[in-house]
Design brief:
Elements lengths: L5 E10 L5 E9 L4 E5 L27 H15 L7 H12 L9 H19 L3 H6 L5 E2 L1 E8 L12 E6 L5 H23 L19 H14 L6 E6 L6 E2 L4 E4 L2 E3 L1 H14 L2 E5 L7 H11 L4 E4 L7 H10 L4 E4 L1 H4 L2 H13 L3 E5 L9 H9 L3 E3 L6 H17 L4 E2 L9
Parallel strand pairs: 4-16, 5-15, 7-11, 11-12, 12-13, 13-14, 14-15
Antiparallel strand pairs: 1-2, 2-3, 5-6, 6-7, 8-9, 9-10
This protein binds phosphoenolpyruvate (PEP) and magnesium ion (MG).
Length: 427
């Protein structure tokens, strides 16, 4: 039907939450409906991610995306114009083919993703469906468990913490609303505990809205988190998760990990995690090793994969080939899904499908550089994967995702189900 046929593709350079330029694209159809998407950006990027096209040169430190904007309005518009927005896979495939490179380096993964997601939004609008239902159908009624990054370290903060993310995970609640606000109670308590212990500078925030206190040791962060959870009466209901983002503290020269003032071999690093999961209520660890160390990832999975979720982010980069390698080696038991790591919605959906079919769980994720676009909230509900990480319950670009989930839960009414513990696929 001509109404769904793409008539116009417009893009512009906007800003992300770090004040960096990013791209927003709007797709309009003959029938007069439209959809847009704003692309996020990572700081701790995996090496195998889709190419993020930046202008280079002097302007904005080379970070501009005007070339990507021109690619959307020029060659990519040419590829998609006249196509039916409901044919997502066809449109994505056509863009990938036209780009012709392995990592989307010709037009830019950021340019391609903006068109891909705006297409889905336009299709949903044309069908009069919310995005989550367009993506997931009538079965899409499960609201994901939020993984809230409340203490920021690594490259997301200016402190000494090697581990990048200390997350709280409200698991044992009946609704998403209850779970989210339990997380907010913990966040508030954490703030006052941090100020009490380290002074006012401890309330400074990192890139994902979590606190960036002057803490140097992982255990210190975990202790204060456990204290905050206890203080507000949620012990046993709110658990903990880590994103080590270990590529960030791996020294390639000597093959050692630099954590908490120690230099550790992969074996010692494994012992470090084994010890942490014994002592703290940790239900999930992401990127525990350097992104190419599948062997160590596999070894840790063998030891604790039955009771702790082990998530591959930089390991898999939402890339089916890398995920399949992980599945074969039983490295990790969960996929972190970031649509801009691979660059199209279709490839992201395929990757999630491969993961779920192999018995891996899936966690939809934001990036450290975000916009207020809440599309990943809809994606998590649409995928029925039961997990999302979108940062702290603070700052506009983070809460836009959580607020969207509140809205979806409200809209679904009695049909809504909170994913809860079972989403993690562990005992
Ligand atoms: C992450 O590592 O999971 C993350 C969200 O950070 P970034 O977007 O910087 O890769
Ligand atoms: Mg990560």
């Amino acid at each position: 039907m001509a109404a769904f046929s793409i008539s116009e593709v417009r893009a512009m350079e906007i800003l992300d939450s770090r004040g960096e330029p990013t791209i927003m694209t709007r797709i309009s159809t003959e029938g007069g409906f439209s959809g847009s998407f704003s692309v996020p950006a990572g700081a701790s990027r995996g090496r195998s991610e889709a190419f993020e096209l930046r202008d280079g040169g002097k302007r904005l430190g080379g970070r501009g995306v005007l070339t990507a904007v021109a690619n959307v309005e020029g060659p990519l518009a040419e590829v998609v114009r006249g196509r039916d927005v409901r044919r997502q896979w066809e449109i994505d495939e056509a863009m990938v083919r036209a780009d012709g490179t392995k990592n989307k380096s010709r037009f830019g993964g950021n340019a391609i993703l903006s068109v891909s997601m705006a297409t889905a939004r336009a299709a949903a609008a044309g069908l009069g469906e919310p995005l989550y239902r367009y993506l997931g159908g009538v079965g899409a009624r499960e609201i994901p468990v939020p993984f809230m990054n409340v203490i920021n370290g690594g490259v997301h903060a200016g402190n000494e913490l090697a581990i990048q993310e200390f997350m709280i995970v409200p698991l044992r609640f009946n609704t998403f609303r209850e779970a989210l606000f339990a997380g907010v109670e913990v966040y508030r308590e954490l703030k006052s505990l941090l100020i009490g212990k380290y002074g006012r500078s401890a309330k400074n925030l990192g890139d994902e809205g979590g606190f960036a206190p002057p803490i140097g040791r992982s255990e210190e962060a975990l202790e204060i988190l456990v204290g905050a959870i206890e203080e507000v009466g949620f012990s046993g209901k709110v658990k903990l998760a880590l994103d080590a983002a270990a590529s960030g503290f791996f020294d390639e020269e000597d093959g050692k990990y630099l954590v908490d003032g120690r230099s550790m071999s992969p074996g010692e690093m494994e012992d470090f995690y084994l010890d942490l999961v014994e002592r703290y209520p940790i239900v999930s660890i992401e990127d525990p090793f350097h992104e190419e160390d599948f062997e160590s990832f596999s070894s840790l999975t063998k030891k604790i994969g039955g009771r702790v979720q082990l998530v591959g982010d930089d390991f898999f980069t939402t890339n089916v080939e890398r995920l399949k390698k992980g599945i074969k080696m039983r490295a990790g038991n969960a996929l972190l899904l970031k649509i801009n790591q691979i660059g199209t919605l279709s490839e992201s959906l395929h990757c999630a499908e491969v993961a779920l079919r192999a018995g891996y769980s899936v966690m939809v994720s934001h990036r450290s550089g975000e916009t207020t676009d809440p599309a990943i909230a809809d994606l998590a509900v649409g995928l029925r994967c039961g997990q999302i990480k979108a940062g702290a319950p603070a700052r506009g670009e983070r809460v836009s995702k959580y607020n969207r989930l509140l809205e979806i839960e409200e809209e679904l009414g009695s049909e809504a189900v909170f994913a809860g513990e079972s989403a993690l696929g562990i005992d």
